[in-house]
Amino acid sequence: TIYGHRDRVWSVAFSPDGKRIVSGSEDKTIRLWDAETGAALEQPLMGHYAGVISVVFSPDGKRIASGSYDYAIRMWDAETGAAIGGPLGGHNGWVNSVAFSPDGRRLASGLEDKMIQFWDAETGAVIGEPLATHDSSVFSVAFSPDGKRVASACDDKTIRMWDVETAATIGEPLVGHDDSVNSVAFSPDAKRIVSGSVDGTIRIWDLETGTAIGEPLTGHDDWVNSVAFSPDGRRIASGSTDETIRMWDVETGAALGKPLIGHDGSVNSVAFSPDGRRIASGSTDETIRMWDVE
């Protein structure tokens, strides 16, 4: 167990080389950790004026982007911990989710004000107009592996797909959850996405047809806050308000083993290591935990 934050941990992510973990917390800080030892690598990264909801490494591992309740995005040097430029502002609500494009040139943000915004990751300049089709807060955004599409998960119970170049919606919204959709992620082959919802279920979707594959995955006793595909695309990890993490077989939808129990609070974020051998989780209990996948 990794201790250091002084309030709930909202988000965790591995560096591309798997050697570091970044975390964002309600304590307004971002922290970097050694993924092998759990040791803190830097002093806390400070600059946000409210809780940090989302953190992510750039694909080259040199930068970190963070989104916060303070309505701003900040960029950080992953080696030194120094802030890069000023905050990316202009939002009218919380920045619930940030995601880098696979080439590292763009950043997408999902916002409380129902919008999705693209940014130039090098200059911090806004790219185009906000994408405004959702009817409520956007809780999660994710780029496809080829960088051509973005998926967004929303409080309006839907998932939408967007063309990055044209900013147009692709197809109809994916409808199937009975409550807010908290998290969305692409499979490594970009043929599927997975979503987790306040309704306590996980759904897998076929991106060619825009339909759900099979029945909802059930087993959690409360909200599903975070979902992630393993790097080989064979497994899904999910974190829940029921304080557990579960793993699932993508092809069969079956739960793999028993729930992973250890946190004393809601599991807000889960992430696979790049080699797929470990899962990192961040929790309301103020800790980060590491799990052996096998």
UniProtKB/TrEMBL annotation:
Name assigned to this protein: WD40 repeat-like protein
Gene3D superfamilies: YVTN repeat-like/Quinoprotein amine dehydrogenase (2.130.10.10)
WD repeat placement: 2-43, 45-86, 88-129, 131-172, 174-215, 217-258, 260-294
Xref: SUPFAM superfamilies: Quinoprotein alcohol dehydrogenase-like
Entry keyword set: Repeat, WD repeat
Lineage, broadest ranks: Eukaryota, Fungi, Dikarya, Basidiomycota, Agaricomycotina
InterPro entries xref list: Quinoprotein_ADH-like_sf, WD40/YVTN_repeat-like_dom_sf, WD40_PAC1, WD40_repeat_CS, WD40_rpt
UniProt keyword Glycosyltransferase, yes or no: no
Pfam families: WD40
Keyword tRNA-binding found: no
SMART domains according to UniProt: WD40
PANTHER family, sorted: F-BOX AND WD REPEAT DOMAIN CONTAINING 7 (PTHR19848:SF8), WD40 REPEAT PROTEIN (PTHR19848)
